[in-house]
Amino acid sequence: MNASESPWTRHEITAWILAGLGLFFVLRLKLLPALLAGLLVAELVHVIVPRLRFFRVTGYRGRLVAVAILAIIIASLITVGVIGLLAFFRSDAGSLSTLLAKMADIIDAARDKLPLWVADRLPEDAESLRSAFTEWLRAHADDIRVASTALGITLTQILVGLVIGALVALREAQTNRSPGPLAVALSERMEALGDAFRRIVFAQIRISALNTTLTAIYLAGVLPMLGIKLPLLKTMIAVTFFVGLMPIVGNLVSNTVIVIVSLSHSLGVAAASLGYLVVIHKLEYFVNARIVGSQIRAKAWELLTAMLVMEAAFGILGLVAAPIYYAYIKTALVQRRLI
Question: Which residue has better confidence, 221 or 59?
Answer without folding.
Answer: 221
